[in-house]
């Protein structure tokens, strides 16, 4: 083994992580009793950014994700998320490879939403409404198109140029796509909804359809928010709320700001494993899936990478 581990480019990382396979790998992590994921460390940085340190361990592969998040980096023409994931052999402790952190973050977040939609969405034929046309908007469009057979997408963004670019991308994939200006009005027409804004302020005040599946991914700290508190409260009363992991208990800004007892909600693991918590929580109406992120998702991606393109 060479002293320097293989460094995968963003393109190589993406090729190793097709969305349907990554969703399956995420489900496998949730079913694997040998996986250990300690709480992530979030270190504030001078100027308002954050450093995230996220380890995860499985019997074969161990990872540490090191990324920075700086919300206003767009003004500097820099990515909001930067960093890498170091992949180790669990048995020997040797570095296997280093993969591109932003690419993994985008793809595993969208793959988690895909898995949740596969398990929870009352209907998957669309149209899909994407609110926020950045990196996550494109990743979710691709994930849902690859994993659900999506045929139509509507896009809302504060930036007309970003929305038009995502519409062009969707049409290049053979999808029917349009830009719309009113996200709340579009909710009435779209049974699939993904909110992936910068989550610096409420972006949605309308109520999703009774047969809707919502993946809310933009807010991943208690201070961030995309959905109005009264909407979240109505969804808690007449629908089903699910969080990605128990880390959401103290991170799910949309739900926490609505005064919802997040710790009482089922997780995606409860759904996958069919636990009593899921059986008790499951009911009709819209499904609101709140995703905050977890190093287990990055571990799933690392296992995909190692399996798809073994590192020396």
Automatic annotation (TrEMBL):
Gene3D superfamilies attached to this UniProt entry: NAD(P)-binding Rossmann-like Domain (3.40.50.720), ornithine cyclodeaminase, domain 1 (3.30.1780.10)
GO CC annotation: cytoplasm
Name the UniProt record assigns to this protein: Ornithine cyclodeaminase
Pfam families named among the record's database cross-references: OCD_Mu_crystall
Species of origin: Tepidicella xavieri
InterPro entries, sorted: NAD(P)-bd_dom_sf, ODC_Mu_crystall, ODC_N
